[in-house]
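Page 37, top half.
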Amino acid sequence: MEASRLISCREDVSSLFPDHTLGSKHEDLRSQFCSVRKVRGDGNCFYRAFCFAHLESLLHNARALDRFKDKVMQSANDLSRAGFDESSFKDHLNTLLDVVQQCQQADEEEATLLRLFNEQMTSDSMVQYLRLLTSAHLRNHADFFCNFVESPNLHAYCHQEVEAMAMECDHVDILALTQALDVTIHIGSLEGEDLVHHIIPEGAEPSMHLLYQTSHYDILYPHPQP
């Protein structure tokens, strides 16, 4: 049952790797993080993990949740400025706002958030909005981002690689989305011999922690501060 979910319940971080693969980087990961939520590897894992982890970090801060709702509502202007017709994003925007509102009104916020993110239509709609917002930010700041895109042009890249569901995200997309929502993210990577940490943007305090390995993202939870 758990394996079929879009986002899992929290599990011990050691569930990420079989015992026989334990190396120094896995020990480093286990020493810094206690648990993980696994995200389905369907090409949308970054956006789904990002959205869930950020909302989860805000659940017990009513003022921060209201600020996030305001930010999302204002982001509609960014999509319009980038040339998106309101009909292409209004339903997805409303889905995201409705999820926030349901969590605000719920007695068990985390359980409500997890339930909504495991409803395929609701979850995918939120992912689609973040994809459109990422594309809009790239387009609205084309002079900067065109330097990092290898496609024929930025417009083609956004249409083919960012807006389309199930397309894996690149570093430039992560940078654009964090800028668009003014969110700081920490990504731990197991790709090399050592556990490598990336803070985007650098020097800020992250609101979420994700793990990157084999083109996939899961959500990490640090050990509680003593």
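Page 37, bottom half:
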Amino acid sequence: MACTCLFLRCSNVAMQTFSKPWLSFGRAQYVTSRSELLGLYNDKKRASAESPSAPDLNPEAIYANNEMSLSHIDVIGFDYDYTLATYTSALHELLFDLGKKALINNVKYPAEIMDFKYDPNHAVRGLHFDTQKGLLLKIDSFHNIQLGTVYRGHQPVSDDEVHELYGGTHISLDYMNSFYGTGPMHQMIDLFAIPEISLISDITEYFNQNNIVYDPEYVFFDIRNAVQGVHKSGVLHQKIMESLDIYVEKVEETKGLLTRLQSEGKKLFLISNSGFPFIDAGMRYMIGPDWLDLFDIVIVSARKPKFFHAGNRPFRLYDPGMGRNTWGRVTTLEKGKVYQQGNLYTLRQMTGWFGPRVLYFGDHVYSDLADPSLRYGWRTGAIIPELEREITLQNDPQYKNTVRWLVILQHLIEEMQYQQSAESKQVIAEWLEERDALRVFAKSVFNPHFGSLFRTHHNPTYFFRRLARFADIYTSSLTNMLHYPSDYTFYPHRVVLPHEPSPFRNFVK
């Protein structure tokens, strides 16, 4: 939404500059010479430079996809990893290194891959990997590939090759393998996916440079199994617990937020896929030994997303002192106790927590937010750590000026494309080259290879499309909730549709 808002503000400037472009085609036929076109171009560029900049956006704000009032929320739930617990960048490097070792030890990959160094700036979340063609790429909300973001290993793939391989840029739903599809195009969506993407890129590059024959599907699943094996074996959790000060950010405000919500009469619960010893170590480090007192219900090893639709899995009572489950049937969920597995249907029956009076925060738009939102009517909040950095970059004056001029230039190209003379067509071709250069700059501000997590050149990304569908609100950190009173209402921005006039035209100078 932050990126969309900046785009809309720039669009409003452009709309005011052009007044009613759909009525201007009648006079466009008289603008035929190169000098006239360049004069119009210079007028628009001067107007763009003199236009007031859009106000900075707050990197710690909460942004709304859907209207939601906190005064209507009685129950608030939380995921643990990347929601209650915030991890440092050192965790990604650890996972990258553990993944390398697993590939060498378990799947006999070349020992030389141990020399790979983790690059935290290589990739962004939400990319797709084509296991048939061995390409990493970014897709927009309409399933179109963003040209300039397609890589084989570390080598960019030309636009011509992309068109040849895919018959254009559109990816069909059947070819996708994320949420609905079962095809070979896999989305790398969770926050642990960044080291996984880096391993895919590094190993693909190594095989190509050394003329090693490989099937990209085997490489993909070897890496995925290695990384997931690090999780499932408990090795990753053990490493984190041994060095909490290195891998976990001790956010002092977290306890303050939970205490405030509790004092306001909110019921609080935790549902996490992680095991209790791991969560307990992290919560003791961040909040203190009495952290369980802040929650009405604690559910661990929940196996989301199965938790939300596997109606026959019973809850098991976990004994922290013994470090194991008990054998008695769970008939009620009590404060101060810890439960494993279970399912949402039983949770609702035992608590009476139904529908839009429940707000659940998580970082994974599929396993945390999709089912609660679509199936059960919970309100949902997404924690997107990358948001803070992206908004900070958006606030840079050079970026804002570039995007404003990019929008105005594109309107100018749209208006003048009816010119038929060879001279006019040459000028418009030059403008298109400038537009493409501006696009490349705007993309590279966020990441030189893949751009922003939230948008392609002019469309939202596939990632943001799912975020907008499954999350009522989103923010960079859970503790940003402290900036808002308990009766605050989050309002989404009215998006101007392509066929609608801008309501702000008369207010933009």
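Margin note: The mean pLDDT is 90.
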